[in-house]
Amino acid sequence: MREPVAASDRPIRERHRPRAPATPAHRLTEAADQRHFRAALLRWYRRHARPLPWRPSPGLYATWISEVMLQQTQVATVIPYYRRFLAQFPDVQSLASAQEADVLRCWEGLGYYRRARQLHAAARRIVRDYEGLLPTRFDQWCALPGIGRYTAGAILSIALDQRHPILEANTQRLLSRLLALAGDPTSAAHRRLLWSWAALLLPRRACGDFNQALMELGSTVCTPRAPQCARCPVARHCAALAQGRQAELPGPQTPVAYVERQEVAVVVRRADGRVLVRQCGEGERWAGLWDFLRLRLDHDTLTARALCAGVHALSGVRVGPPRELAVLRHGVTRHRITLRCYAADCRRAGRRRAGVQWVTPAELGRLPVSVTTRQISRLIEP
Ligand code: SF4
Predict the structure, then answer these.
(1) Structural domain boundaries, residue 38
(2) What is the best residue among 238, 243, 249 to mutate for testing ligand 1's pocket, by most ligand atoms within 8 Å of CB?
(3) Is 240 near ligand 1, meaning CB less than 6 Å away?
(4) Tell me: the pLDDT tens digits for 62-76?
């Protein structure tokens, strides 16, 4: 079994120091250069890869879990979630037979909850369609909820050493620099070209290690800012370095258009200490999770009357005058949300709307909720 070691900060040896080629073109078109590139990258990976719980590959199921968790999430954040998730759902059968709420509760705080719901739906489909045996074909994986070209390729190459290329944020940046590709790296044309290079450079064997090596180099050496070219094992192939453009490539991405939003959360309490929560429906931001009553109201024109009317419309419950608890600011995808939190006492329970429920503080602790909802629940702890 391979024993990965921590990344070294030793400078590369003199003979690996890059020399500027006579032309600014990259040096990866020749078969001999591609062979050298693969060998140098794999050698580096086997010496310098970070030891992570999913290395070497722990098999199809655990590789699948790690790949889904790592989407848009830092390695350090994922590690405790990965361990907890596998302890609670050690195989596809246990995941498929779990309640969705338990899967979401285990995922709570990791964000992008759609991933957890799709993981759960995919596990159920695997049990239904494949008798609980994880598929081993690319097309079978791509047909599962939440699995795209990158994830299917990563799972099968890492767990089974199948020959599939991958492209994600780290490899996108790394390849863009190696090839000195200017322009928006997230554009369709740029990505098409990078996918074809990711396939071209793939070795015949050790594809899983090769793909992981590309990602590892992108995340630890060819970093977004200040790439450490002096430590780079493939520096001699890098056109960006040869042209002195490693800091400016890849080109700027299309900036995210952030949207400011104002929202209001109301904690409705009964005399017995129970609070009112609502399960977010399909198509809502936190589908499947529970939340206090959340209203989209303009803070500048907000009145107690409008707030009470909003609570009644959403829940069927009449409340007394609201008291402000706190103002929280948080971001969800491209939304920048300012959330005013209020508490209000129940005056008349009335006819409750579907999806709304009274829970004790202990029951609330077991429900899957968003990070901000958990924050609010701490504000009302006795
Ligand atoms: S030489 Fe520098 S810019 Fe080029 S791939 Fe290596 S770290 Fe990235």
Answers:
(1) 27-242
(2) 238
(3) yes
(4) 999 999 999 989 999
